[in-house]
Write a structure and sequence with these properties.
This protein has 508 residues and is an all-alpha fold. It contains 24 helices and no strands. It has one domain. The chain is globular.
Length: 508
């Protein structure tokens, strides 16, 4: 029998938690169909021979959402973007645009013939799918190469989205309906194939699963591959380190670090060695990029414009930073670093060891909140993490509405960029501000549940264990208690047996 507390394999199976009993928002909606499932009802998953289990329903819903997403992007698939159809139909995708911009339609090899603006795993992915499409197009000139390239990418990225849903299900075997938040999200519907972000998300999700199953080296390998596709999976090592220090499992973290560093170096080294200037393009571009649409800095610059002309000698702080990008870089990195220090301090002095997904969400969200670049598809980074960190429908729906508002306002801004504005600039800034506020509010809710773990519904279901923790589910080191005493933190969390029967707090 397994002695690992984080694994459910050999212990008596607990019945899955129904969302209608654990989530106030869903409980209210369930009243329209008779209310939550009763304690004496026969649960669907208990019926022998039943095909449509919760997991299969979630995976099917994910596939349906992705299919609708493909239909939504279909007006842009041919590449005939006349009259700004890519903005009026909300179907713009970098995948198709960069097939031509990166020279794949001419058979150019990424990095060798063209300096790709993305990390190497994304570049490898583009080349692995794009070059065969070009070769086939040379033999069959009647095909639309761009459409074939987009559809091939959409198929693989959708498969990675399904993998992500499967990982959420595997990590929440007692709470399978949490994954429905991911499966039904309009965020996937609108942004699944805007860029190659699901490549990094799928790799990072597999890494989280392997860590939870106590394979730290393999987890690190997938974190490294994810970081070589998009940088953010690297941030997961920070929460892992802090939690490993608290639980005295630093040796396990070290294996994850070795796996991350090793896989990242292995996939980067050939391009670094052979095409060094092309390899540097990603880092140079990020250091040179100015303030981007919809960021905190963009909002601040707009507000500065209400009181300052922006000319020499009459600039607000955000206007000045807009013209001094190196200083802006230092400030953004500094604020992110301070946020990470604050998250680490919270993790060390919290009444109970925070869950890995809670800290991972806070770190990635802090990176986006303080970054000078916040592309529309970056919202996908947060979606699986918030589902694992705080599976509450109400707050996530409010955030999703704000993201949809920003999405539509952003496309309206793009439509008016070359001519007459479609919406007032203030409307776009308001949409961006609401997006920033809702992400900050989600962070506040996660912090509250770290500080008051009796409010954490995942902790209630798993009797205070972290289903994502793996080796981290170990006793705290003694210095944690001394830290609390030094800061006069005496708060103790209610036992899981008490908190699970207490009235459910209202869901925002």
């Amino acid at each position: 029998m397994s002695t690992h507390p984080s694994e459910d394999v050999d212990r008596p199976a607990a019945p899955p938690t129904a969302q209608a009993t654990s989530d106030g928002f869903v409980r209210g909606l369930s009243e329209a169909i008779g209310g939550p499932l009763g304690s004496h009802a026969v649960r669907p998953e208990a019926r022998p021979g039943r095909f449509w289990t919760a997991a299969r329903i979630i995976l099917a819903l994910t596939c349906i959402t992705l299919a609708f997403s493909w239909v939504q992007k279909s007006p842009c698939q041919t590449g005939d973007w006349q009259k700004n159809i890519q903005y009026t139909r909300f179907c713009y995708t970098d995948v198709l645009a960069l097939y031509y911009a990166e020279g794949l339609n001419e058979g150019q090899v990424p990095y060798k013939d063209h300096a790709v603006e993305y990390p190497v795993v994304t570049g490898y992915f583009m080349g692995a799918l794009g070059l065969p499409v070009h070769a086939y197009g040379v033999k069959h000139p009647n095909i639309n190469q761009g459409q074939w390239f987009y559809n091939t990418n959409a198929l693989v990225l959708s498969a990675l989205a399904v993998v992500t849903a499967a990982v959420i299900l595997a990590l929440r075997r007692r709470r399978p309906w949490d994954a429905a938040i991911f499966a039904l999200s309009p965020i996937i519907f609108f942004t699944a194939t805007v860029n190659w972000d699901f490549l990094a998300i799928g790799l990072a999700a597999i890494g989280l699963y392997l860590w939870a199953k106590r394979h730290p080296l393999w987890a690190g390998i997938f974190f490294g591959l994810g970081a070589a596709a998009k940088l953010w999976p690297l941030f997961i090592l920070g929460p892992l380190l802090v939690l490993a220090v608290r639980s005295k499992t630093i040796d396990k973290w070290f294996w994850a670090f070795l796996g991350t560093a090793g896989s990242w170096i292995l996939v980067n080294f050939p391009v670094w060695l052979l095409y060094h200037d092309s390899w540097l393009r990603f880092f140079q571009l990020n250091s040179e990029r100015p303030i981007d649409w919809g960021t905190l800095w963009y909002v601040g610059r707009y507000l500065d414009g209400k009181w300052h002309s922006g000319g020499s000698g009459d600039q607000g702080p955000f206007q000045w930073l807009s013209n001094h990008v190196p200083t802006l870089n230092i400030i953004t990195y500094g604020l992110f670093g301070l946020a990470c220090v604050a998250i680490a301090a919270l993790a060390l002095v919290a009444p109970k060891r925070p869950r890995l997904s809670q800290l991972a969400f806070l770190v990635v969200a802090a990176f986006l909140l303080f970054s000078k670049v916040w592309s529309q598809q970056y919202v996908l980074w947060l979606l699986p993490l918030i589902v694992l960190a705080r599976p509450r429908w109400g707050a996530i729906i409010a955030w999703t509405v704000a993201e949809f508002g920003y999405f539509t306002a952003f496309y309206a801004e793009l439509l008016g960029a070359g001519g007459k504005p479609v919406i007032p600039e203030g409307t776009f800034v308001l949409a961006a501000t609401l997006r920033i506020i809702t992400v900050a509010v989600l962070c506040g809710f996660v912090i509250r549940e770290i500080w008051r773990p009796e409010l954490d519904v995942v902790r209630q279901t798993y009797q205070d264990e972290d289903p994502d923790g793996g080796y981290l589910n170990a006793p705290d080191q003694r210095f944690v208690d001394r830290l609390r005493q030094a800061f006069r933190i005496d708060r103790t969390a209610a036992p899981a047996s008490e908190s699970s029967s207490s009235p459910e707090p209202a869901t925002t």
